[in-house]
Amino acid sequence: METFGYRLRKLRTEKELTQSELGKLLNVTNVGVAKWESDDRFPDKETLIKIADYFNVSLDYLLCRTDNPKGILVNDNIDGNEIQIEVNKEVYPDGLTHEEVLEVLKTLKEQLGIDWEKFKKKNT
Fold it and tell me: Fewest beta carbons within 10 Å, which of 54, 74, 77, 95?
């Protein structure tokens, strides 16, 4: 199973950066980067966001919640149905916000009568 450290190392080496170079970009030492990559330590929230932004990946990908580097997991409860949909962080249609995407899903259920449980089973 992949870990945050594994993914960070993979992203860093794909950009051909040393631990020291990445550390300078993030304002931390190369030792700090090495500890993250070995999963001995974990960056703070602000640094984690910087890492995701620098490598243009989602936080969900860095945290191993999805294998899609651009994937974001959207969770919501629509009329008592818990749903989780993975969307591409760069492809919200027409520049919609997260909240607007949830509203679209709610409207689909209301107007088209979509049964999310059947939809999920059919598409997995």
Answer: 95
What residues contact 99, with CB distance under 8 A and at least 6 apart?
none
The phi and psi torsions of 31 (rounded to 5 degrees) equal -65, -40
In which residue are the tokens 């969770």 written?
75
The segment with the largest mean pLDDT, out of 44-48, 79-83, 96-100, is 44-48
Average pLDDT, the chain: 83
Q: How far apart are the first and last CA of the chain?
A: 21
- Give CA–CA dist 4/88, Å, rounded: 19
What tokens were used for 50?
Answer: 């910087």
Q: Which residues pair with 83 in a beta bridge?
A: 76
Q: State how far the alpha carbon of 110 is from the alpha carbons of 4, 63, 83, 86, 102, in Å.
A: 39, 33, 15, 21, 12
- DSSP secondary structure, 37-57, as one string: HTTS----HHHHHHHHHHHT-
